[in-house]
């Protein structure tokens, strides 16, 4: 919940969007007996929340807590039904509800061994990003490891590096001064300049033409 609140504050400060949807994944094994069954039960959960510059970080965290608890209370609801209810018009090549994801890997490390074999998990490097940005936090013995998958046709490595540094700075601010307002969280200068440049490009001028027609 803290990680999600920090990510939402970061995205708001970067984009100035107030209504943000971040996706995550649930194991969807809450039913009795599913903990011992083989197969993929994963379900996608969109987490919607609002952020305003005047909000205190603790208020954002409180709303995040309610959002996460509500979502996981209904984690069995098929994602396709959520997408249909949202009435999204996005193309089939993108997620119909969200384009930023967050995943917390907090399961313990396991090593399998038997009388005549031994096995261990190997990380598989994904070569295709399914979302514009997907943040993966993993609990390890040294602390918390944070990675980011991204679409290379939208972002470059330098930008993602600034995003991760900004994310860490927001999380540090949450722990050091949780009563500060969202507007008081600073972004890396490179992200601020990029956002301002993008907004200048999107500004459109309006022309009003008055004319009189006489028959």
Characterization of the model:
By secondary structure, the chain is an alpha+beta fold. Helix content is 34%, strand content 20%. It has 5 helices and 7 strands. The strands form 3 sheets. It has a 3-stranded mixed sheet with strand order 3-6-7, with no helix packed on it. The chain has a two-stranded antiparallel ribbon with strand order 1-2. Helix 1 (2-15) crosses helix 2 and helix 1 (2-15) packs across helix 4.
Low-confidence stretches: none
Q: Tell me, what's the shape?
A: globular
> How many helices in DSSP terms?
5
Quickly count the domains: 1
Give a quick set of tags describing it.
single chain; 215 residues; alpha+beta; Chloramphenicol Acetyltransferase; 3-stranded mixed sheet; two-stranded antiparallel sheet; globular
Write the layout of secondary structure elements.
Elements: H1 2-15, E1 19-26, E2 43-50, H2 57-73, H3 79-86, E3 100-105, E4 111-113, E5 118-120, E6 133-140, E7 143-150, H4 157-176, H5 189-202
Parallel strand pairs: 3-6
Antiparallel strand pairs: 1-2, 4-5, 6-7
Would you kindly provide a brief summary of this structure?
This protein is an alpha+beta fold and about 220 residues long. Helix content is about 35%, strand content about 20%.
């Amino acid at each position: 919940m803290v990680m999600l609140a920090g990510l939402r504050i970061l995205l708001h400060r970067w984009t100035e969007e107030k209504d943000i949807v971040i996706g995550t994944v649930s194991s969807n094994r809450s039913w009795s007996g599913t903990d011992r069954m083989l197969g993929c039960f994963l379900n996608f959960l969109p987490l919607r929340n609002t952020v305003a510059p005047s909000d205190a970080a603790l208020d954002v965290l409180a709303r995040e807590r309610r959002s996460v608890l509500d979502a996981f209370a209904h984690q069995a609801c098929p994602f396709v039904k959520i997408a249909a209810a949202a009435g999204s018009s996005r193309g089939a090549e993108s997620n119909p509800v969200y384009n930023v994801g967050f995943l917390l890997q907090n399961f313990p490390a396991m090593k399998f061994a038997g009388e005549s074999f031994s096995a261990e998990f190997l990380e598989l490097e994904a070569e295709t990003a399914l979302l514009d940005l997907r943040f993966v936090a993993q609990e390890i013995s040294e602390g918390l490891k944070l990675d980011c998958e991204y679409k290379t046709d939208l972002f470059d490595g330098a930008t993602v590096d600034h995003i991760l540094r900004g994310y860490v700075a927001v999380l540090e601010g949450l722990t050091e001064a949780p009563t500060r307002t969202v507007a008081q969280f600073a972004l890396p200068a490179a992200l601020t300049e990029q956002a301002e440049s993008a907004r200048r490009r999107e500004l459109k001028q309006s022309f009003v033409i008055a004319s009189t027609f006489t028959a």
